[in-house]
Design a protein that fits this description.
By secondary structure, the chain is α+β, with helices and mostly antiparallel strands. It has four helices and four strands, in the order E-H-E-H-H-H-E-E. It is elongated, with a radius of gyration of 16 Å.
Amino acid sequence: MTDHIRIEGIEFYAHHGVSEEERSVGHRYWADLSVYGDFRAACTSDRLEDTISYSKLARMAVEIGTSERFALLEKLAETMAERVLRDDERIAEVEVTVGKLHPPARAVVHRAAVVLRRTRSDFGLPERGV
């Protein structure tokens, strides 16, 4: 798939982490989402219902990031990827980047992130019918 929609810099405050301190105090996180599919219908119609809503994807990322708790960024990103693919069958593939701003480390680190790319088949979901 060469068509994709990218949303960058979705920020939220959440309580993920391995240490008790990270989970209790919380931290600032961000997510970037790229969804891949065939968006020719939207190119032709120019109608919102024929594409993937950026707003809906951003709200979904924030809801997952703030309503659940994970030890690892990998699990947070995987959960986001699965929900995005389950939510709209037009999405064939998703790339999720989830990061922590100024993570606790024994160095000055601006951001640490995980990038996952998943397809519908990774979660046993049917491919979109053509």
